[in-house]
Amino acid sequence: MLFSTRLVFRYLPEIMEEDRFAIHKASAALLSQAIAVLTLGYIVIEPEALAYIVAIFPAIPRAAMDVKKLLQGEEVSLYPVPGHSLAKLKVNYIDHLRVFAFLTPHKRKLDMTSQYIKKNMGKSYYCTASFILSVKNGGAYEKEVSYLESSFTHS
């Protein structure tokens, strides 16, 4: 997920900055012609569409370098384009984890925590309980549902 996030931030300048994208368009036009010639005209790919694919190739190693820096405890620019206002904003690995935690649904976080506990302890030491309150026809209707899981092994 970290690599994917950094790849997006590295790919965006490749397609949003006119001078960078012009280089990708030229490369895509050459590649499109080469494919058409090699396949004797059976396969023709529009250079405009191919330019978006070509643009991802320089972003991949840059995103990998960002991930390497982040995992070493360094900071990287949020949007790595010199002169852009977001280039001044530096983020680190913990900042990425905070964003991922914020965007991850609560149930998914609980499932991940449960898997982590099971993986590291070999047993599931937890219990769960849930309570439901619903309102029907203007009157309060309460229903309580409890579920307890205990998997302590006695040896």
What would the average pLDDT be, to the nearest integer?
Answer: 83
Q: Rounded to an integer, what's the Rg over CA atoms?
A: 25 Å
In N-to-C order, the SSE pattern is: HHHHEEHHEE
Structural class of the secondary elements? mainly alpha
The figure for the number of domains is 2
Number of DSSP-assigned strands: 4
Annotation field: number of helices:
6
How do the strands of the widest beta sheet line up side by side? Answer: 1-2
The N- and C-terminal alpha carbons lie at a distance of 40 Å
* β-strand amount: 5-15%
Low-confidence stretches: 151-155
Helix amount: 55-70%
Largest sheet: 2 strands, antiparallel
What's the short version?
The protein is mainly α and 155 residues long. It is built from six helices and four strands; from the N terminus they run ααααββααββ.
Task: Name a few traits of the molecule.
mainly alpha; 2 domains; two-stranded antiparallel ribbon; 6 helices; disordered C terminus
Give a written overview of the molecule.
The chain has 155 residues and is mainly α. The protein has two domains: 2-103, no CATH class; 106-145, no CATH class. The chain contains six helices and four strands, in the order ααααββααββ. The protein has helices at residues 2-16, 18-38, 47-54, 56-71, 93-103, 106-121; strands at 76-77, 90-91, 130-136, 139-145. The chain has a two-stranded antiparallel sheet. The protein has a two-stranded antiparallel ribbon with strand order 3-4. A hairpin with a 2-residue loop joins strand 3 (130-136) and strand 4. The longest helix is centred in the N-terminal third of the chain and has 21 residues, at 18-38. The model is unreliable at 151-155 (pLDDT under 50).
